[in-house]
Write a structure and sequence with these properties.
Chain lengths: ~110, ~190
C-alpha cells in the first residue's frame, strides 16, 4: 500500500519531506529497543515518542514512516534530523488505538 | 554449508533486555559502563577496590547474538554497548568525514561502541563491525539507502560527541498534546 494513500485516508499531517513509499506493515511501540529487535523494513511505526533518537532507529530499521500519535508535539530538532536523513515523520491528534484500527480496516497488518 | 566460504545472512537471536548502567567514581572521576540483566538495576553507591561508583544513568537496552540462516554460525556481541547515529557535530571527527563523503548516496553512518573504560574492555573486532553492517543492510528492503557501521576509534572524544545514541532514556515528551476540539468534545460525552 502506498504511503500517500494512507496519509490521505487517515488525514495525517506531514512534518518532513514526503516520498511515496510502499508500506508493508505496521509496528507499534514506544521502546527503541523493541523497534530495533522486532520492527521490519517498510513498517509504519506508530509511537508517542518524539525524541530525536526515533530518527536514529527509524533510519536504521528503514521503516516507511514514523507516525507520532496523540497530538504529541514533535520538537524542531527531531523534524530537522528527519529531513536530513529522509525519515518521514507524520503526526495525528488521534490515539494509537484509533489509528491502528483504521490501518487494519484499510488492510494493513503487522508483518 | 560450513561457516568458511558462506556468504552469511544474519538473523538476530538470543535477544535479552536489560539496562546499560553508567557509573562514575567519586574519587578518580573515571566513567564505567556495564550491562545489567536485572529488572531493577542497582542504583546505590558501591565500592570496588579503590573506586567508589555512583550511578549516573540507567538506560533500557538489549543484547543479542547473530546466527547465519545458511550455515548456522553464531556470533556473540557481548562487547557491543550500543550504536550511535552520526549527526555531524565535529568536522574533525573521522566518522563525520565518512558521513559527509557518503551522504549524497544516502549512506548513513552509525558508530558501534563498546563498554567503558575502553582500556579495560575487549572492543568489537573489524569482523563484528562488518557483520553488524551486513545485518542492517540485509534487513533493508530497498536499495535506495545504506547503513555504514564504523568503529568508535574514529571518534576522537566521545564526551564531546552529540550523535544520537540509541537507548531508551530521557525519551519522555514533556510537551502536552496540542488542543484538539474534536477529542475534547468526545471526552465530554459529545457536549462542550
Amino acid at each position: 500500500m502506498k504511503l500517500q494513500k494512507i496519509v490521505e485516508d487517515l488525514k495525517l499531517q506531514i512534518l518532513t519531506k514526503m516520498e511515496d513509499k510502499d508500506v508493508q506493515g505496521v509496528f507499534i511501540s514506544d521502546l527503541l529497543s523493541d523497534v530495533m529487535t522486532s520492527a521490519n523494513a517498510g513498517d509504519l511505526w506508530l509511537t508517542v515518542q518524539t525524541h530525536h533518537n526515533i530518527i536514529a532507529v527509524a533510519n536504521l530499521v528503514n521503516v516507511a514512516a514514523v507516525v507520532v500519535t496523540h497530538g504529541k508535539k514533535v520538537p524542531e530538532e527531531t523534524i530537522s534530523l528527519g529531513k536530513r536523513y529522509h525519515v518521514i515523520i507524520l503526526s495525528t491528534p488521534n490515539p494509537i488505538f484509533d489509528i491502528a484500527a483504521k490501518l487494519n480496516a484499510i488492510g494493513l497488518k503487522s508483518q | 554449508m560450513t561457516a568458511k566460504g558462506c556468504s552469511h545472512t544474519w538473523k538476530m537471536i538470543n535477544v535479552a533486555y536489560g539496562h546499560i548502567i553508567t557509573e562514575k567514581c567519586s574519587k578518580c572521576y573515571i566513567v564505567s559502563t556495564y550491562f545489567s540483566f536485572e529488572d531493577r538495576p542497582p542504583l546505590e553507591e558501591h565500592r570496588e577496590g579503590d573506586h567508589f561508583w555512583n550511578v549516573m544513568e540507567s538506560a533500557q537496552s538489549f543484547r543479542f547474538d547473530f546466527q547465519c540462516t545458511r550455515c548456522s554460525q553464531i556470533v556473540h556481541f557481548d562487547e557491543l554497548m550500543g550504536l550511535l547515529m552520526c549527526t555531524g557535530c565535529d568536522k574533525n571527527c573521522e566518522a563525520e568525514k565518512i558521513q559527509q563523503s557518503h551522504e549524497k548516496e544516502r549512506t548513513w553512518v552509525y558508530v558501534a561502541f563498546g563498554f567503558l573504560p575502553i582500556a579495560d574492555h575487549k572492543q568489537l573486532s573489524r569482523e563484528q563491525i562488518a557483520m553488524l553492517e551486513d545485518f542492517f543492510n540485509q534487513r533493508r528492503k530497498s536499495a535506495d539507502s545504506r547503513i555504514k557501521i564504523v568503529s568508535q576509534e574514529l571518534v576522537p572524544d566521545f564526551s564531546l560527541c552529540y550523535g544520537a545514541v540509541i537507548k531508551d532514556v530521557n525519551m519522555l515528551s514533556l510537551t502536552p498534546p496540542e488542543a484538539d476540539d474534536s477529542q475534547l468534545i468526545h471526552y465530554l460525552g459529545g457536549k462542550r
